Amino acid sequence: MRNARQPHRTQTYNATVIVTIDGVAASGKSSVASGVARALHVPYVSSGLLYRAAARAALNAGLPLTDEAALTAHLRAHPLRLDARADGNRAYQGDTDLTPHLHTDEVDDAVSAVAALPGVRAWIDDHLRSLPAPFVAEGRDMGTNVFPHATAKFYLTASPRVRAQRRVNERDADIDAIETALRERDRRDARQSQPAPDAHLIDTGPLTLQGVIDLILQRVQAAHA
Ligand SMILES: Nc1ncnc2c1ncn2[C@@H]1O[C@H](COP(=O)(O)OP(=O)(O)OP(=O)(O)O)[C@@H](O)[C@H]1O
Ligand SMILES: Nc1ccn([C@H]2C[C@H](O)[C@@H](COP(=O)(O)O)O2)c(=O)n1
After folding, report:
1. Ligand closest to CA 116
2. What processes in GO biological process is this protein linked to (predicted)?
3. pTM of the model
């Protein structure tokens, strides 16, 4: 029952609003971005899913993961498409839904090499910038490179051990192996994973998933007060 003195306010966000949520592997970006997007009634955009789709497409085509010319030409000839919604993203290549095959150890092992290629990054950046705002965009370089003028920027961290504890239920591997893999992916992705100078840094270790979402919503709505 709402207090009569606090009439319901339907916050609407104009078409220019972009919220970015960056962070290291398994820091909670996708889960937090989805929760924030649902609360704001806007889509969330998973840039990581596009990089994973690019790696999956390269593996499917049997292309060398470091062959920038071949991979960039393949993306131009067989474009990826991100279907971005508040409750989840799906990545397509033509009519093929690649999403079920993107969060696997094989793609985890391949994606950093593909994401290191400037031509692949440029292709994905163009696709991300073509998406209609408002939305919440999550990844590594949303607030630094792709959407530097975003309305509000956040960067999530947590210790490798905490992140491994969160991931252990999702993967068929022991926690030490998961932690080692996360540390390695952090190292490989470091170049594009630095926080924007104007990003709010959030150590998610002491916070619940909902706690992180609520903290971000408070700061986004303060920016619109
Ligand atoms: N603050 C939190 N407290 C507890 N669990 C969390 C928290 N944030 C995220 N999680 C859980 O941790 C797991 C990893 O989260 P998520 O997949 O959103 O991370 P990510 O950064 O998107 O990962 P990746 O970089 O691999 O895409 C999920 O099971 C999620 O529900
Ligand atoms: N903006 C981005 C998003 C992701 N990547 C790379 C780094 C990761 O290894 C990989 C998968 O991302 P995740 O699903 O773990 O968020 O893609 C990147 O370079 N830039």
Report:
1. 2
2. pyrimidine nucleotide metabolic process
3. 0.91
